Amino acid sequence: MKKVGLFFGTFNPLHIGHLILANHLVQETDLEEVWFVITPQSPFKKKSSLLDNHHRYQMVFEAVEEFPHLKPSKIEFDLPQPNYTINTLVHLEEKYPKGYSFQLIMGEDNLKSFRKWKNYEEILARYELLVYPRLSEGVVPEDLQDHPAIHRIEAPIIEISSTLVRRMHKEGKDVRPMLPAAVWKFMDEMNFYR
Ligand SMILES: Nc1ncnc2c1ncn2[C@@H]1O[C@H](COP(=O)(O)OP(=O)(O)OP(=O)(O)O)[C@@H](O)[C@H]1O
Ligand SMILES: O=C(O)c1ccc[n+]([C@@H]2O[C@H](COP(=O)([O-])O)[C@@H](O)[C@H]2O)c1
Q1: What is the pLDDT of residues 107-136, one digit of tens each?
Q2: Phi and psi of 91, rounded to 5°?
Q3: pLDDT at 13
Q4: How far does residue 77's CA lie from ligand 2's centre (Å)?
Q5: Choosing a second label site near 39 at 20 to 30 A (CA), which of 18, 63, 86, 146?
Q6: Where is the Cytidyltransferase-like domain (predicted)?
Q7: CA separation for the pair 154, 173 (Å, rounded)
Q8: 158 within ligand 1 shell (Cβ under 6 A)
Q9: Contact, 126 vs 103, CB < 8 A?
């Protein structure tokens, strides 16, 4: 049984915060692989300045190419939008009926609003959540604090965001240290987020 951690996001673009976290999980937990699931349309996010799915995929693909345990996933590209994670999980179980066991990777910020996710109770009944620390406002709801399906894991906190990268880049500032080299190269060549 291959243990796969699913890391959902818009990755607009992927930055080193995402990459460091995914690598940390693969190195420090019993996850064999982490899949970056590129979400076409996140339920609570606006579509403004969102690059085409395939361009976001391409950047993840190039960034993880040299890391054999990290993979990009297009699984949500043909699913209805906005992309509810429960639907994707059902689809994944159909596509990989044997040999894989999936867990969800989630930042503590998302856990705080997790009760707004579609069918979150069903997700918790069927999947383990690996929750890593983030700096964020608010509190984790009491019923999720000691939930048996929720596992806290240690990981470095790197508080940068794609929004910050896009904003600074648009202002003509240097963002290269925040991006994997391949992401920067593609973004620059394609004139993204200008
Ligand atoms: N610096 C970070 N460290 C760890 N996890 C992060 C970091 N930034 C975002 N994440 C998490 O990674 C997942 C995918 O992130 P997403 O693509 O939404 O990036 P983002 O940087 O938050 O984007 P945006 O600024 O465009 O909203 C989300 O679950 C998000 O909480
Ligand atoms: O299923 C839901 O209801 C749901 C609600 C919000 C977010 N998600 C998933 O979580 C991912 C990260 O969310 P966000 O808002 O931090 O970008 C996003 O790409 C979706 O895959 C899922």
Answers
A1: 999 999 999 999 999 999 999 999 999 999
A2: -60, -40
A3: 98
A4: 15
A5: 146
A6: 6-167
A7: 32
A8: yes
A9: no
- CA–centroid distance, 159 to ligand 2, in Å, is 18
State in Å: Cα 108 to ligand 1 middle.
11
Q: Which two tokens stand for residue 119?
A: 């069918």
ipTM, interface predicted TM-score of the complex: 0.97
* Predicted TM-score of the model (pTM): 0.98
Residues, the chain: 194
- Domains of the chain in sequence order: 2-190 (3.40.50.620)
* Residue owning tokens 């503590």: 108
Q: Which atom of ligand 2 is nearest to the CA of 117?
A: 3
- Tell me which H or E stretch contains 17: helix 16-28
With beta carbons less than 8 A apart as the criterion, state whether 37 and 8 touch.
yes
CA distance 45 to 90: 22
Nearest atom within ligand 1 for CA of residue 7: 13
Residue with tokens 């906190």: 157
Pocket of ligand 1 contains residue 109 by CB under 6 Å: yes
**Under 8 Å between Cβ of 76 and 41:** no
Tell me the ligand closest to 136's alpha carbon.
Answer: 1
